[in-house]
């Protein structure tokens, strides 16, 4: 075991065997520029001051830490606390990262922003910061996702973004990412790519993690000041893994704190799913080496999840490393379990969660009853469910 | 060292490099298309390895990848196509081009060994830049296979030595910042780039991306050691399917004439 779990990536952007910079030569000089600019920004108090100011007054941070009494009582075991990142401006944790990246883009003199989106939360967050800073914005979104996330498509357009539906492949998040990379390569001189998850070529996994780590830093302080102790277990849903790494990272060296990342098991791990750690193996895609769903020839297979934000066939490289070194446990829950958890939280706490954190809630519902009442579970409620009510209604057989 | 690749660039005229995707439209159709490239006068054959996520490719080659994978093309099929090609054409250099994951999934040594056994002369991996060379480069060099790197308009003088380090065969100059098959670069920008590249590169430099016609290829051949044509051939395969060999041969023949005679016309 290393002395610290918080020192990676190394200078080449690797987390153990994972991560790295597997990009076309055209992008390589820009990736190196971005890394240099990020190092400068990281050491610049003015950058942090502007980031913190926007998070406080524009995003609405700190987000509350909430003890969920009725859910705790219903499950009859550990105390359940939620980090309420669904109360952020735009309704999810994604905005934390977008604020940080657009400040970097402006430092680099870039005049145009592109992004990929799955559920649309990252697209909305990107369109939001672009409107805030007056930069033109193009969002690539799989055509399948455009169809199942219409409210977010309309939000992005209201915010002034151009939404480009991507029909290649299955028309989901990975295809949107391919198309964003193609656009970036062709517009490398003026365009900044705001990647939405803690994946992609170095330094993206590092900088997305750093911007999202506000979640874990706040939660750690809040819980300490409210209870005088650290949590026993952290739980977060994982697609690419940005909300999870944001919650986990500040706690990685607190050896008493266990952590559980929850992948999307879709229809089941023996059927269609999006659980790259459980059902994939290491490979190279979208600029990094990580666990991927793929066949024996290295062709990427499509992920499936009821949650458009989780059906990506890969995972951030730091999670791949944390799994290999055993610091974080990973599990998965099915579409059905996530739907049940979605309804459970609505009913017990008056909170409509997004389908992504519903996966985390489902894992909490499984583990909480097995733990003593004085243990504390802290789960990340990383998005709200307004965007999902139409697809949930459809799955429940309800006509709206 | 003399080998098939260096010989291809030492014929006294610029080299024509032709790209098609292996298994497009089916693995069975590829050998006849490769023969047509050779008959038409291609000096180097670049055989694309299909990938589900071809991030550096435009619509034409994306579709070729889909057709090939849709026909069930496997890595074993591609290696068999290469092995059979080598038996039919002992002297024509064959280069595999593709993405990192299919090349490295069984380990770099496995891939390098399979390439060597199949008679492959070089490998172009789009998404392994010099920074990640350990992922594939050492294994290829150990088997005598040329790692062929890409240089682009964004590769500046400070970076060029790193791109050239450990590469061999030829340097592939991607003449536009963009994806395959889209826009083409202005001739004077290619000429400037060639002057810059040739100041660093001891190996030949071939220019590709956006080169579709003999009229475009000829002038580029006047300033470059080689010209790469891909999407235009792939478009013909899309149009003619299993009967593509003849139209492919015709286009390659016209391209070869323009490329091979480019410097004579100048003189």
Question: Describe it for me?
Answer:
The complex is a heterodimer of chains A (400) and B (267). Chain A is an alpha/beta fold and 400 residues long. Chain A folds into 2 domains: 15-55 and 94-208, Rossmann fold, CATH 3.40.50.1100; 62-91 and 214-395, Rossmann fold. Chain A has 16 helices and 14 strands. The relative contact order of chain A is 0.16. With 267 residues, chain B is α/β, with parallel strands linked by helices. Chain B is built from 13 helices and 9 strands. A 9-stranded parallel β-sheet of chain B has the order 5-4-3-2-1-9-8-7-6. In chain B, helix 4 (75-88) packs parallel to helix 6 (108-118). The A-B interface holds A 12, 20-30, 168-169, 174, 178, 181-182, 185-189, 283-287, 292, 294, 296-301 and B 51-58, 62, 69, 74-75, 99-105, 126-129, 131-132, 135, 149-156, 159, 163, 174, 176-179, 182.
**Average of per-residue pLDDT values of chain B:** 95
- Count of discrete structural domains of chain B: 1
Radius of gyration of chain B: 17 Å
Number of continuous helical runs of chain B: 13
- According to DSSP, the number of beta strands of chain B is 9
Question: Shape of chain A from CA axes?
Answer: globular
Number of helices of chain A: 16
CATH third-tier fold name of the largest domain in chain A: Rossmann fold
How would you characterize the largest beta sheet of chain A? 6 strands, mixed
| Oligomeric state as shown | heterodimer
Distance between the termini of chain B: 30 Å
Mean pLDDT of chain A comes to 96
CATH class of the largest domain in chain A: Alpha Beta
Helix content of chain B: 40-55%
CATH top level of chain B is Alpha Beta
User: What's the domain count of chain A?
Assistant: 2
Q: What is the radius of gyration of chain A?
A: 19 Å
Shape of chain B: globular
User: What pair of chains forms the biggest interface?
Assistant: A-B, 36 and 42 residues
Structural class by helix and strand composition of chain A: alpha/beta
